[in-house]
Amino acid sequence: MHDAHALEPVGAIGHRTTSVAAPIEKFATWLFLASEVMFFSGLIGAYIVIRAGAVSWPNPREELSIPITGFNTFVLICSSVTMVRALYSLREGNRRKFLINLAATFLMGCFFLSVQLFEYNKLFHEGLTPQGNLFGTTFYTLTGFHGAHVFGGVVMLLVLLIRARRGAFSAERTTAIECAGLYWHFVDLVWILLFTIVYLI
Amino acid sequence: MMRTLYAYWLNTYWRVFVALAVFTGIEIWIAQQEGSKVLLAATLVAFALCKAALVAMYYMHLRYERRILWYVATLPFIFAAILALGLLSDSSLNANKPGPGPIVEQPQPEP
Lengths: 201, 111
Description:
The structure holds 2 protein chains of 2 kinds.
Chain A: H1 24-52, H2 60-63, H3 66-92, H4 95-126, H5 134-165, H6 175-200
Helix pairs in contact in A: 1-5, 1-6, 3-4, 3-6, 4-5, 5-6
Chain B: H1 2-31, H2 37-59, H3 67-93
Helix pairs in contact in B: 1-2
């Protein structure tokens, strides 16, 4: 059985650990993600209450484009893979692979946002607006806040890409990439739930 | 040693990726089926939670993290579940109130 912890340089050079035996940056990132879980829980909870209490509700499969959004979901999942590959390429010391995978993650994030904006534009022209009815309000609120998080992630990836090109990261200095990866995977995780709850059910 | 571990991890992540892609396809197929709405919704939510767990366990590396990070990561979900239970009981009290209705165009303001 492979020792998974061999890939975790906890306590290695550049990692300050806390009394909880985890790098402080990673611990802080997880705390931040915990707050984000509560944030999205509130939004999704509100959506469920509004929809469960409604006598009638438009069929999302008729109002929204499932094939396009399904493909967009696939792209976001792919971006999580490239993010993981970027981290492990960096840990292996393969700078070229690290930069390629980090750039691929950034580009796929941009693609996801582009498709989202295209969908919004299409739905606007079809009459689905945030102020039109509760379905529109909840749809744009949920997907809009998620899109804002993706935008923040894309900006973060761009900054990391620029810093990586300047040699800011190495096999011993991976914490920033690891924390960025946690945030990016969380964004993917939230979309997995949102896609099911908003688009499919 | 590192290269072997690197190859092992890459295989794991590719397997998770294939699982996520397959689950997504199955979800889209299930959503198009006719049947009990409650059963369909429960199945879709179960698939979504499985996918979320795969991402959290493997991509976010939670499976191999220290116990304290498990607590930090899972405690909000417990709070979210409590919130959901409280809200669901509240929504059942409003079940007979009129909902948003069909999508209608906004009336244009008169010039």
